[in-house]
TrEMBL record:
Record family assignment: Belongs to the EME1/MMS4 family.
Cofactors: Mg(2+)
Gene Ontology BP annotations: double-strand break repair; mitotic intra-S DNA damage checkpoint signaling; replication fork processing; resolution of meiotic recombination intermediates
Protein keywords: DNA damage, DNA recombination, DNA repair, Endonuclease, Hydrolase, Magnesium, Meiosis, Metal-binding, Nuclease, Nucleus
Taxonomic lineage: Eukaryota, Metazoa, Spiralia, Lophotrochozoa, Mollusca
Listed name of the protein: EME1
Species whose genome carries this gene: Acanthosepion pharaonis (Pharaoh cuttlefish)
Length: 360
């Protein structure tokens, strides 16, 4: 008998020790999960911060093709712009000469057992091509010849050139920039041919306009004609700011309505709160009125099902009319009904098939 008691006590002690260890493991698991949640939140805050207006430019790099250096003064002007914006700049060979592109440094999170953050460089889908004037003139002249029916290779036309750029930078928005076009027109205003050996590539203002219109219609590509290095630097500044702020503006457009930003949990009280908020979008629907309606119909589905059980539309319109709305409590308590107008508007909200119907 004494042996059985000892054995029972031993088993009980082992069971208690086992339960204690289990509780310790649960506490440790909760502690680790809490730490992990804090790390995830911190990493997400760091990632979001990189897209804020005051921070996004610091995470941008302007990539200049090595051929840009050959354009007198352009490299210096763009470098000054980058320094003023707080952005980085790199000079490296691009897929096509005279291309300017952008690269963003983003923070990525590895949501494994241990939350790890790493910085990654992503190329943006926007490029500028600073096309030399003589090359642009040749391409426009090639397009002019092809329009006349002459045999011209595709790569010798402006449209063909843009097609080749699009193949190399698939999925990117392309903008051509040409410096000195007005100076070209002034230089050859009174001459129909060049004085040098290139007597076959003179183009008119009309030729340029036709080529650019065709380019926009067929290639969905924009071309800007500017006159100075300073103008080019201004374009780089504008594009750098626009590319840097693009993700933030995109998120802003996707969250057009204020209640899109509210996080709603999966439990019943959260869903009822959202249902009440939806009802309170109407004018003169107070928290007391919405609470009274939700107490009878805790979800939109329950209200729609109640409408379906009504025998006619008149009964549907009056369904919520006589629900009592109580205000305050005790001796100060007052009561009223939802009312005809509120009942009618909520009925229209839940049942109308007219997308253009205005509910106030």
């Amino acid at each position: 008998m004494g042996l059985e008691k000892k054995l029972h006590a031993k088993l009980k002690a082992e069971e208690k020790a086992k339960q204690k260890q289990e509780r310790q493991r649960e506490r440790e698991a909760k502690r680790l999960e809490k730490e992990r949640a804090i790390q995830i939140k911190k990493a997400q805050q760091m990632s979001r911060k990189a897209f804020q207006p005051k921070e996004c430019l610091k995470h941008m790099s302007v990539i200049l093709d090595s051929a840009i250096v050959s354009i007198t003064g352009l490299e210096t002007a763009i470098v000054n712009i980058c320094e003023n914006l707080g952005s980085n700049y790199l000079i490296q060979s691009q897929k096509i000469p005279f291309v300017i592109s952008w690269r963003r440094s983003v923070i990525e999170c590895d949501m494994g057992a241990q939350v790890l953050t790493a910085q990654k460089d992503l190329d943006e889908d926007e490029i500028l091509v600073c096309l030399p004037l003589d090359h642009f003139v040749e391409l426009v002249y090639g397009a002019k010849q092809k329009q006349r029916g002459e045999m011209v290779a595709d790569f010798q036309t402006l449209q063909g050139y843009v097609d080749s750029v699009r193949q190399m930078y698939f999925g990117c928005s392309i903008t051509l920039v040409v410096i000195g076009m007005e100076n070209y027109f002034r230089k050859y205003k009174r001459s129909k041919t060049h004085k040098g050996n290139r007597t076959d590539t003179i183009i008119s203002r009309l030729d340029v306009e036709e080529a650019l219109v065709n380019l926009q219609l067929r290639n969905l590509c924009n071309c800007q004609l500017i006159e100075s290095i300073e103008d080019m630097a201004d374009i780089v500044r504008t594009f750098t700011k626009a590319v840097a702020e693009k993700p933030m503006k995109k998120d802003r457009l996707q969250s057009e309505f204020t209640f899109h930003n509210e996080k709603v949990g999966g439990n019943a009280s959260d869903n009822q709160s959202l249902w009440k908020t939806q009802l309170e979008q109407f004018k003169n629907i107070s928290n007391d009125i919405s609470s009274a309606i939700v107490s009878h119909y805790p979800s939109p589905k329950s209200l729609v099902e109640a409408y379906k059980k009504c025998s006619n539309e008149k009964e549907c319109i009056k369904l919520l009319e006589n629900i009592m709305v109580r205000r305050k409590a005790g001796i100060l308590e007052t009561s009223r009904r939802v009312g005809k107008e509120a009942s009618r508007r909520i009925y229209l909200l839940m049942t109308t098939t007219n997308a253009d119907l205005v509910l106030k």
